[in-house]
Amino acid sequence: MRRTPLSAALLFVLASPAAFAQTAPAPAPAAAKEASTLDTIVVTGTRVSDRTVAESQSPIDIITPETLQATGTTELATALSRALPSLNFPRPAITDGTDAVRPAQIRGLAPDQVLVLVNGKRRHTTALINLNGSIGRGSSPVDLNAIPISAIERVEVLRDGASAQYGSDAIAGVINVVLKGRGSDGGVSLGGGKFSAGDGEQWNANGHVGIEFGDKGFLRLAAQGGHQDQTNRARPYRGVVEQRYGDPEIDSGALFFNTEYAPAEGVNFYAFGGYNKSDVLSNGYFRPADDYRNTPSIYPNGFLPQIHNISENQSAVAGVRGTTAGGTNIDVSLDYGRNYLDFNIENTLNTSLGPTSPTKFYAGALKVTQNVLNLDFSKSLDVGMAYPITLAYGAEWRGEKFEEKPGEPGSYAKGTFVSPNETQTPPRIVPGAQVFAGFTPGDSGSFHRESYAFYVDLEADFNEKFSAGIAARYEDYSDFGDTTSGKLSARYAFTDKVALRGTISTGFRAPSLQQQYFQSVATNFIGGLPYEIATFRVDNPAAKALGAEALKAEESTNYGLGLVLQPIDALYITIDAYRIDIDDRILLSENLISPAVRAYLQSLGYSVAGGRYFTNAADTKTTGIDIVGTYRWQLDAGTLDFTAGYNYSKTEIRSIAKNPAALEAIDPNAVRIGRTEISRITEGAPRDKFMLGGTWNSEHWQFSATATRYGEFTWLDGTTPVPIYANDQTFGAKWTLDLAATYKLGDWSFTLGGDNVLDEYPDESRAAVGSRNYLPYNTQSPFGFNGAYVYGKVGYKW
Description:
Layout: H1 6-14, E1 60-63, H2 65-68, H3 76-83, E2 87-88, E3 105-106, E4 114-118, E5 121-122, E6 152-158, H4 163-166, E7 173-179, E8 186-195, E9 202-212, E10 217-228, E11 249-264, E12 267-283, E13 306-323, E14 328-346, E15 361-381, E16 389-405, H5 409-412, E17 445-461, E18 466-477, E19 481-493, E20 498-509, H6 513-517, E21 520-526, E22 529-535, H7 541-545, E23 554-565, E24 571-588, H8 595-603, E25 610-612, E26 614-635, E27 638-656, H9 661-666, H10 675-682, E28 688-697, E29 701-710, E30 713-715, E31 729-731, E32 734-745, E33 748-755, E34 789-797
Parallel strand pairs: 4-7, 22-25
Antiparallel strand pairs: 1-6, 2-3, 4-5, 6-7, 8-9, 8-34, 9-10, 10-11, 11-12, 12-13, 13-14, 14-15, 15-16, 16-17, 17-18, 18-19, 19-20, 20-23, 21-22, 23-24, 24-26, 26-27, 27-28, 28-29, 29-32, 30-31, 32-33, 33-34
């Protein structure tokens, strides 16, 4: 396709006839606190300016600040997982950088198959790619926890495919974080707590303040900072607890802003963004004193290597909007986002360097940068129907860059020293920093791409009962080609109390630059034994010899059908069934560790035990249902709000691509997608989740309780040189209960609460690490394995 230079695109917008001749409409306001969220005007999934939750043609949830702050967590992703039945946010441990940047998933799909927006603009992803045994293996999702809860007015969660409206990644849905806006109010809060096991002590401070510039604009600032200690649920080995297994130690801080200014009638400038820094210390596997990877003269009692990650997120969006004399709304914006992730390895050594090895290394860094230019237009068209048609159209340019930076030479060096603990012949030489070898200069590089998109969207209320919409989007990527997506949606209200809604759409997710170009060597435990595994770029000659091919986009087809019921004014129920078919799903292959593969890689000069790469290897089908109900009971002494939610989601593998001829030639018995990865996709997240919550509000008191049932999940043992399937296990369903009580005294509030107050833990795992079963819980547990958490908060608002 012909590419339009950015300068020409800007001139086109600025030269639009009579541009900005009228005052632009303000962003859709949040619903008043006393109003039902059904009346909240939504800005996600529609470009109609006055569409409410109740009128939406697609299922959408509104998560209020009160809901986000109703538990002891200060993490946005954790708060959302406790408010949304369809969202899963486990707490993996001993998974390298994934401990620091944990992935969330919706409807059981991959974490990078949901699009995250802030104020309707695309949020950048993290530079990390999840490589180890966690939910979302192989993905690079957005770090939701980098956004402070204190900055949020509400979160709109669209549970529907939306690639035709927003582009890549919106297969499972869209999470739109709407920031606090106009107002001179503010507030501060200080809280802290500890787990009942006596560890994981936390404290957090946050606040927000609004400044108004008369009737011309506002500035909203929000900040959040805190610390949490590690938790540890490992058990003793040889009489002492050598391992740490649980949440990492985290120091974090964030500052966000949101501002608008209208210097004259018809021109409205806006900007928002923020900065976040997280300093995370997580753990690897303990190396005993007699381990061949240890040098006893440095660590006579063995050592626990640790990964010290520093993650920085920067974002800024600036734009201008207005309305022409002809009634066309125009929005021009430039979006910048960046994530930088450092890897520092501590309490470690490079065994191959011998007794003189350093015990700390800088292992390198990953960086991802996103720039987006959006040109959006909308107009109400009077074509003689009962209501106008809303026409929206626009264009987008996106530039993305991924960088992998090398570590210091000692972090990846291969020396000549053999540990005195080595017992094999010929002896093994173990290069690189233990737990995480540094990125080599050969691994490193800078990679970028551009994409161009054009979309059109029509939406109309044909009468008081029937509304419908149609959308189409064309995108062209510089690295893999073009794609077109479409969407049809409709809603019919039989009465004021019963409505039917449905959608059909196609979508896509472009392969991330991280999936295409990340490369490293790291230790992986397979069947309890350590293996040095190389993750190859898909264009690496070694990867091609093992069957790797250039990645292409995932493509999806989404079907949704929902029933909206409001039998009485205070009761609202939605029932939404869905099916999502995904072709060419991008997965990280199995660790190919057969003797044939190992001999081949070593013949190419790779001192590794195996290799892996990304591939479009599977087609999947996901079916499910969401049921959400809310009820408000107005009492003389206050209000009682009930919320119930249920999600059932089942993912099946429709097909797995055959091994390519190149891999067959090296190892005819190779398995690219094994049973562990299949189970992680199909059964690794709970098949269902049920939530029931109630909140009682009066003048001085607020009491809340939420009971959540997490359905069972399954872990299947992987393929080692000898299959050992005896450790296959299905983990039973579990209930958790969260309680909180708040006393309100004027502008002050005092809260005492507990999360998981019944101290529930997942079933213990039968799987052992080597001969030592000191890690009792599976990291796929949807509510973690920390036990009960008790907390207190003090807040002041004005």
